[in-house]
Write a structure and sequence with these properties.
Number of strands: 19
Largest sheet: 5 strands, mixed
Structural class: alpha+beta
Helix content: 40-55%
Number of helices: 24
Radius of gyration: 40 Å
Shape: elongated
């Protein structure tokens, strides 16, 4: 039996349907007396539905896309949303491999090409995207073999629409192992710019197919296995809306009609008292008067003539147009929210139409899962993986993020509730530190908070659930272990506090050039009694401090102290938020003085205390070099009166030379980093605080701001630290890093 083409099959199917015996009975409502119902002589029964294939009118589709703004938005909006939140890889690849994969997708403009293919599919009913693989130029008509893909050979996609680029050819594919191509054309012919010249044939395994709304089998085959344009579904409603809009425009021209009263008009028109020439002159006169009125000029009337104005109001007309627009938005595929399509709310001022937005997002997610996901998973991504890694991961999977763009308030609320839910099982000893870090990193994809929790940090976390006793006030034995001990003869202050009155660690408004409002500490005269911290807050401080410490490459012990502690500064009683033991290098946090659900405050406290430790390490190095200098008689006895060394000894003792060139009075004048550090220099100027104390606090505050710059919470250090302090901070860090 010879094989039939799609059109032949469709006609054969239609002939079989028409050949079936027609039923003699009807099952429909009918009221002949009232002229209501099926086949009654009524206006309603005069309506009919005709099969009109608008998709086949290529130039009509092009005209709508070019010239009709509503049709274009209905075509483009869902296509843009389909690729706006591009899927993320969800498999056991390393972070570097995932980054390489994402860069390839971005470099080849793959999302842009797929958006274009979806756009043409929605407009014309179908489109194809040819996967461009270097070295496969001469084997495009053969099935794609992943083993033949060389490293770095994926070069992107070439998009063709169904009318002017690509046409199905040959028989239907019979390979049931390939669900994407089974039952569809096995080959496609690519045409030239004029649409008539066949350039080459391509196997279906190399083509990503995108189609418009699907139709029943006969229509599907007659359309050469493509879908139909979405314009077919909106055509009637769009015509109604356009006609309503033009009718309103016509009403505007009739908003004010002028009528002229002429007592001789009846006789003049009857011809009883006038000749044809008089009638012609009358018509010319009326035409001239009409032109004069149009130009806001003069109008001459007879003795008994007069001019009257009739005005028309348009009450309710706008509501009618709105109804047509609501129907037009509803019949689009998927139903685009009215506010998204027309830029205003249909239900009134201040309404957000949350349900419409949610329904639309669910429809887009469904289209991504049904139409885009299979082609990415079974066709495109295996090709890219072979090009990048030489193999396809066994657990290759993707995850589509939500297309909804969260406001800052929504992100904050989501982060707060998410952190509480994540830390509850961690605090109860159910989940490990590693699993908690993974959950927080996943939460960062939606909230952009905890975005600095890298896979490397998570990999170093403890994979065993912690015992509840470890979260107590005294801390675990591991936390209390010695990190190392190097003391300072000049400064034996063990606990170096970072705090402030009332609620230490709560940074108030201020700061120059920053993005965060939590920059400068608030100051009051006395502290207040702090309430004991909750177990959830203690766990959050512990977890957050560990992550920040690892980001700053600090591996010293971190201790949690539940009891509040105070210290005096310039006559003010201040609460501890954190402290650093400069001998053991242990950092202690005081959750009772740290705001809950405020990662920025915790970040500032921990980075400040780590800054103390780093600075003290450098001071210890300077102290050791100074002792070495004193034991060198040649260098020591050749020292100048101001303490500086001769040039031949400066390179031998660079740290001593660096510190000797620093004028503490200049540092005092230039300190404006924060109110907290300035308070310490005030205490130094009053003869209470030591120089090393004041320098410690300013250095630690700059360290806090430096981390804010790295987190894009602050634009630059220039706005908060003056030149001499920035130079000093850079020198200390250079010594520490060396």
């Amino acid at each position: 039996m010879p094989k039939m083409s799609g059109v032949t099959k469709y006609r054969s199917f239609a002939d079989r349907v028409l050949a079936r015996p027609q039923s003699v009975g009807t099952d429909a409502f009918r009221n002949a007396v009232a002229r209501m119902g099926y086949q009654t002589p009524s206006v309603a029964e005069g309506a009919d539905y005709e099969l009109v294939r608008w998709t086949n009118d290529y130039w009509l589709m092009v005209t709508l896309f070019r010239n009709h703004w509503i049709a274009r938005k209905i075509i483009e909006i869902p296509a843009k949303d389909m690729v706006k939140a591009w899927p993320r890889l969800n498999c056991e690849l390393t972070p570097d491999q995932i980054s390489d994969f994402d860069r390839t997708i971005e470099r080849t403009l793959t999302p842009l090409r797929i958006k274009k293919a979806i756009t043409w599919a929605r407009l014309f009913g179908g489109a194809g995207a040819l996967m461009v693989i270097k070295g496969h130029e001469n084997i495009l008509d053969t099935p794609l073999n992943l083993d033949e893909i060389n490293p770095g050979s994926y070069k992107g996609l070439i998009v063709f629409d169904r009318w002017s680029g690509i046409t199905p050819k040959g028989n239907q594919a019979q390979d049931i192992e390939s669900p994407l191509t089974f039952g569809l054309p096995e080959f496609y012919t690519v045409h030239g710019q004029n649409g008539n010249e066949a350039l080459f044939d391509v196997h279906a395994s190399r083509i990503m197919r995108f189609i418009g709304p699907d139709v029943p089998t006969p229509e599907h085959e007659a359309n050469m296995f493509w879908g139909i344009s979405v314009c077919e579904l909106i055509m009637e409603e769009m015509r109604k809306r356009d006609n309503a809009s033009w009718s309103i425009l016509q009403l505007l021209f009739r908003a004010q009609i002028l009528t002229q009263v002429n007592p001789e008009l009846a006789q003049l028109l009857s011809g009883a008292t006038s000749s044809a020439g008089a009638l012609t002159r009358f018509q010319q006169t009326m035409q001239a008067q009409n032109e004069l009125l149009s130009n806001q000029s003069m109008l001459l009337l007879g003795k008994d003539g007069k001019l009257e104005s009739h005005q028309y109001t348009f009450g309710g007309v706008a509501d009618v147009l709105d109804r047509f627009e609501v129907a037009l938005a509803a019949c689009s595929i998927p139903s685009i929210p009215y506010s998204k399509l027309f830029g205003k709310n249909a239900s009134g001022l201040g309404q957000i139409n949350e349900a419409d937005e949610r329904n639309y997002e669910e429809a887009i997610a469904g289209s991504q899962n049904d139409d885009l996901r299979p082609q990415l998973m079974q066709q495109l991504y295996p090709v890219v993986c072979m090009s990048e890694f030489g193999e396809v991961p066994d657990d290759l999977d993707i995850k589509f993020p939500s297309i909804r763009v969260l406001s800052e308030e929504n992100k904050s609320e989501l982060a707060k509730s998410g952190v509480e839910a994540i830390l509850a099982p961690f605090n109860a000893g159910v989940t490990s530190q590693k699993l908690t870090g993974q959950e927080l990193a996943q939460l960062a994809e939606k909230t952009e908070i905890f975005s600095n929790i890298t896979p490397e940090i998570i990999e170093e976390m403890d994979d065993k659930p912690q015992q509840i006793s470890e979260m107590g006030a005294e801390g675990s034995q591991a936390e209390r272990s010695e990190f190392g001990s190097t003391g300072s003869d000049e400064w034996n202050e063990a606990d170096h506090p970072r705090g402030q009155p009332e609620n230490a660690g709560q940074f108030g408004p201020g700061g120059s050039g920053g993005k965060s409002s939590k920059v400068q500490p608030s100051e009051t005269s006395s502290s207040t009694q702090s309430k004991p911290p909750s177990s959830e807050h203690i766990a959050a401080c512990k977890m957050g401090a560990t992550m920040i410490a690892r980001e700053l490459h600090y591996n010293g012990p971190i201790h949690i102290e539940t009891e509040a502690k105070t210290f005096m500064l310039n006559g003010q009683t201040m609460n501890y938020a954190g402290s650093a033991d400069l001998n053991s290098r242990e950092i202690t946090l005081y959750p009772s003085s740290i705001p809950e659900n405020d990662p920025d405050a915790l970040q500032g406290i921990v980075s400040h205390e780590i800054g103390h430790v780093r600075f003290q390490i450098v001071l210890n190095m300077i102290e050791r070099e100074t002792k070495q200098l004193k034991s060198d008689p040649d260098a020591y006895h050749s020292m100048r009166a101001d303490g500086s060394l001769l040039p031949e000894y400066q390179k031998q003792y660079p740290l001593y030379t660096m510190m000797n060139n620093i004028d503490e009075r200049e540092l005092y004048k230039e300190d404006g980093v924060s109110e907290y550090s300035k308070q310490w220099w005030k205490s130094w100027n009053d003869g209470v605080a030591q120089t090393s104390q004041a320098m410690h606090e300013t250095f630690a505050e700059i360290a806090r701001y430096d981390l804010m710059v790295k987190h894009n919470q602050l634009s630059e250090l220039n706005g908060v630290a003056k030149p001499k302090w920035r130079k000093f901070y850079a020198m200390i860090n250079k010594v520490y890093d060396s």
